[in-house]
Specification:
This is ATPase subunit of ABC transporter with duplicated ATPase domains. Residues 88-111 have a biased composition (Basic and acidic residues). By secondary structure, the chain is an alpha/beta fold. It has two domains: 1-130; 146-341, P-loop containing nucleotide triphosphate hydrolases (Rossmann fold), CATH 3.40.50.300. It has ten helices and eleven strands. It binds adenosine-5'-triphosphate and magnesium ion. Adenosine-5'-triphosphate is lined by residues 157-158, 160, 179, 181-187, 216, 334.
Length: 342
């Protein structure tokens, strides 16, 4: 392709394969920066630039603190000098008194010098910390050893037929699910979780299965209700203040929680869904395109939360980097309603 292309994406692999320049909009710093070179070199340069900003600031902060400490000491000396001069007054020794007050005047001058050095220091603004999410996925007590099974299950949706499919998910299985648009991935998940019954064959769910889900439509976070209310309704055991704290941790602050969930951005809805995963215990985690709409920092955090999660995991994603970064031990591939395992 000859013309220029402007591409907005969080898909790291796609970016790495296509772009030659990266424009980064940094909300925390209120800056935008253009990085030459492709995506990988952007990652490397960004890291270096961040380190530099930090170091510059630390150097400045250290100098300033040092000068301030010196000014403080001199101020003390100077007032001591005045006191000493007063105390020595009774001798009426004019010479000594003048000497003392001269020396305290000298001290005061030093203090002023120090203060003007501080004022002349070129201020380096502290780089604001980026939004860092550290979250874990709440663990529920272990489920039965078999989490879900399908036996010759068939489901029809209009023209589309899923199955017949027979499979079993065991506790602790980590399954990556891929396939083209419309292949039946989301439908398969719905049937596995018992949200829709098969037209023929059977679907069963194991005992004490606690499902934690991010569905593709972020269905729990749609509608007119305010985010805080919706969330509280989903975790009634949480106090209002705790809900606010939790949402804030996921980057959803005071100006978000009062808004109708429909008015949140897709990424914000996804973060709310992640917050819910942390709040509620789960032993079967079902993620349907979880990285859609998430920014890069949140994707990385999700990946690291998944690394320490030890329940069953069903992960549908088109994000190739995510599939590589998250350890899965089974791979299902869907095509035209058929499931194959590799
Ligand atoms: N309510 C419905 N009525 C009729 N057809 C439907 C309905 N819901 C889904 N389908 C069809 O079922 C097929 C499978 O849909 P599904 O959402 O499971 O695909 P998918 O693999 O999750 O795709 P994507 O990658 O786009 O998420 C599609 O052809 C879709 O058009
Ligand atoms: Mg889908």
């Amino acid at each position: 392709m000859r013309g220029g292309v402007v591409l907005v994406s969080h898909d790291r692999e796609f970016l790495a394969r296509t772009v030659t320049r990266v424009l980064e909009l940094d909300l925390a710093q209120h800056t935008n920066t253009v990085y030459g070179g492709g995506y990988e070199s952007y990652l490397a340069e960004r890291e270096v630039a961040r380190r530099h900003r930090r170091e510059e600031y630390e150097e400045y902060a250290e100098r300033k603190a040092d000068l301030q400490a010196r000014a403080r000491t001199q101020r003390e000396w100077s007032s001591q000098g005045v006191r000493n001069a007063m105390r020595k007054n009774p001798d009426n020794d004019k010479v000594r008194r003048r000497a003392a007050s001269e020396s305290s005047e000298k001290q005061a001058q030093k203090v002023r010098q120090m203060e003007s050095r501080i004022a002349r220091l070129e201020e380096v603004v502290e780089p604001r910390k980026e939004w860092v999410l550290e979250f874990t996925i709440g663990a529920a007590p272990r489920s039965s050893s078999v989490v879900a099974t399908l036996n010759d299950a068939v489901l029809r949706q209009g023209e589309f037929v899923l199955g017949p499919v027979s499979l079993q998910v065991d506790a602790g299985d980590r399954i990556g699910i891929t396939g083209p648009n419309g292949a039946g991935k989301s439908t398969l998940l719905r049937m596995l979780l018992g949200r829709v019954a098969p037209d023929s064959g059977s679907a069963t769910l194991g005992a004490s299965v606690q499902i934690g889900e991010i569905d593709q439509a972020r269905g729990l976070f749609t509608g007119e209700q305010a985010l805080a209310e919706r969330f509280e309704g989903l975790v009634p055991e949480f106090a209002t203040a705790d809900v606010r704290t939790l949402l804030a941790k996921f980057g959803l602050r005071a100006d978000h929680v009062g808004r109708a969930v429909d008015d949140l951005s897709p990424g914000e809805r996804t973060r709310a869904a992640l917050a819910l995963l942390q709040a509620k215990g789960t032993n079967v985690l079902v993620l349907d395109e979880p990285t859609n709409h998430l920014d890069l920092a949140a994707i990385e955090q999700l990946e690291s939360a998944l690394a320490s999660y030890d329940g069953a995991l069903l992960l549908v994603t088109h994000d190739r980097r995510m599939l590589t970064n998250v350890n899965v031990d089974r791979r299902w591939r869907l095509d035209g309603g058929r499931v194959s395992e590799s």
